[in-house]
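Entry for NDP complex. Fields follow.
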Amino acid sequence: MTHILHDAHDRDPHEKEFLQAVADVMTSVQPVLDKTPEYRHHGIARRMVEPERIITFRVPWLDDAQQVRVNRGFRVEMNNAIGPYKGGLRFHPSVNQSILKFLAFEHVLKNALTTMPLGGAAGGADFDPKGKSDAEVMRFCQSFMAELFRHIGADTDVPEGDIGVGSREIGYLFGMYRKLCNQFSGVITGKGLGWGGSLIRPEAAGFGCVYFAAQMLAARNDTLEGKTCLISGSGNVAQATARKLIEMGAKVMTFSDSSGHIYDEQGIDLDKLEFVKRLKNIRRGRISEYVDQYPDATYTPTTPEMESNPLWEHRGQFVFPCATQNEINAQDAYHLINNNVKLVCEGASMPCTSQARTIIMDKGILYGPGNAANAGGVAVSGLELTQNSIRLTWLGDEVDSRLKIIMKGIHDTCLAAADANGHPGNYFIGANIVGFIKVAEAMLDQGVI
Ligand code: NDP
C-alpha cells in the first residue's frame, strides 16, 4: 500500500488534504487488499486515487461597481464506475484542487455506501459569496455555469450544494443551465420545491447524521434523550443537525462560523434555531449576533492563528462537527477527552485530522465517520433524481422514512464489514471497506478504463 501513497505524494506533493484522505482510506482498506490479489493485479487502488478528469476554468464576472473580477472554477470527476458523477459544489476562498480532489474521493466511497447508483465528483470555485450582493452572486453563478454546463448532465455528472452553495446559488446555477441547454432535467440536486426539488433534501445531511448517531447509540442500548451536544458551523448541515437533535430530546448548546462560536447554557430550542436560520440564510449575518438577541449566551471569537478551537473546550457529552475539514486537531481532541465526551459524529467532510481521529478512537469514544454519517445528503439527492425521473413528488414523511432506512442500512453494513475484517465496532474502517469493495468490483467487471 505504501507505494500508492508514495506515488500519490510524488505526483502531487502539495495536495495535503487529498493525500490525507488517500492515506486514511487506503490504510483502512488494507485488510481487503491483502486478501484480494485481483485488486492489485488490476491496479484498482492506483486507478481509484487518480481522477478520471479534472476541468479547470476561468470565471469572469462584473461586480456591482462594474469592475471585472476573475475566479477559478473546477470540477473533479473522480469515478463513475457505479453511476453518473455526483458531488457538491463549494464556493469558498480556500477552494483549490487538493480540497476538491479530497471531497471527490470521499464522495466516491460515500455514494457507494448509500447503495445508490452514483459515482463521485466535487467542484466549485475560490469565490467567496460572503459580503456579495444577490446580483453579484447571480452574475458569478451564471458565468460559472457558462462553462460547467458542457461537462454535466442528469446521466453524466450531477452537482449539488456544499459550503457556500445553498438554495440561492443552486437556483441561479440551475436557471443558467436550463437556458443554455434548453432543457429542464434533474441535472442539479437541492433544487427548489416548486421546480423539481425534494422535500427533506436541504435537511438530509444533518438529519441523516443524527439518525446515524441514534443507530450507534441504539446498538449500545443508549439514546440521544437528554444528552448535551456541541455543534460547530451554523450553515445547512449544522442547522439540520440541531433541529433533529432538539426534536429527539437532546440539548444543543453551541453554533459557530469562521469568526467564532456561541455557547448557550440554557440550550438552543426551536425558536432560537429559527432565529439562527433567519440570521444565516436570509440576513446573511454572523453568529456573533446571536448574543445580541439572547444575552445570556456567550460569544468567543476565533482566529486562524489559534492552535486550538475554544469551542471544543466546552463540556458536552456528544459532539457534531458540521463546519469544515480538519476543524478538530489533536489538541482539540485532547480537550474533548478531558471533558469526557462519549460520541463524535461527523456532519462535515473530514472534520478531524488523522491524528485527532486516532486519539478519539484509541480512547474508545464512539466515532461516526463523515463518509457514513453525512451520507444522508447525497442519499436524498439520489431520491430527488428518482422523483425527477418518475415525474412525481413524494411527501416529506415518505422521503424521511426512506432516509432513516438508508442510514440504518449504512450503519449496519459498516458494523458488519468492520466485524468481518477484524475491527469490531470500528465504523471508520467498516465504511471505507464497504464503499471501496463496491466500486472496486464494478471497476474489475468493466476492465482497465
Ligand atoms: P454551509 O456553507 O451552509 O455552512 C458552512 C458553515 O461552516 C458556516 O457556518 C461556515 O462559517 C463554517 N465554515 C466554513 N469554513 C470554515 C472554516 N474554514 N473555519 C470555520 N468555520 C467554517 O455549508 P454546509 O453546511 O453545506 O457544509 C458544511 C460541511 O458539511 C462541509 O464539510 C460539507 O462538505 C459537509 N457536507 C455538506 C452536505 C450538504 O448537503 N450541504 C452533505 C454532506 C456533507 P462562515 O459563514 O463564516 O463561512
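NOTE: Residues 161-164, 166, 205, 233-238, 257-259, 322-324, 347-349, 374, 377 surround NDP (CB under 6 Å).
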